[in-house]
Amino acid sequence: MGGTAALVSKGPTGPAGFLTQDQQHALRQIPRRGATDYGFATDGWTLARIRRVINDTFEVTYTDASGVWRLLHRMGWTNQRPARRALERDEDAIAEWVERTWPDIEKRGPKAGRGSASPTSREPR
What we know:
The chain has helices at residues 21-33, 47-58, 65-74, 91-108. It is mainly alpha-helical. It has a domain at 17-74. Helix 2 packs across helix 3 (65-74). The longest helix has 18 residues, at 91-108. The termini are far apart. Residues 104-125 are annotated as: Disordered. Residues 44-100 form the Winged helix-turn helix domain. This is Winged helix-turn-helix domain-containing protein. It comes from Thermobifida halotolerans.
């Protein structure tokens, strides 16, 4: 009927989404300001937070987070988690410990001795 031309993709299936192209462009700018600028306690973004900002900014309601995720995925966003690091982390102190203290610990190795005290040990007595 259509030959190989009929097999060429016509783009993603399903509804186009609730946001227009201009609104999607504006949505791209929102995370750059940080979540605290939108009244959240911390600066991390979640689907629920983005959903709320979309509702407040564009007056468009997504009923669940999966719709927001599909929108973000179509826009090229990926799921990312921040690196978990303590605020008090001192990189200089860590580097010094690795250079000075760790080699001494590593050299000592396991203590000499018989090994297992288990009666089922295969080691001869």
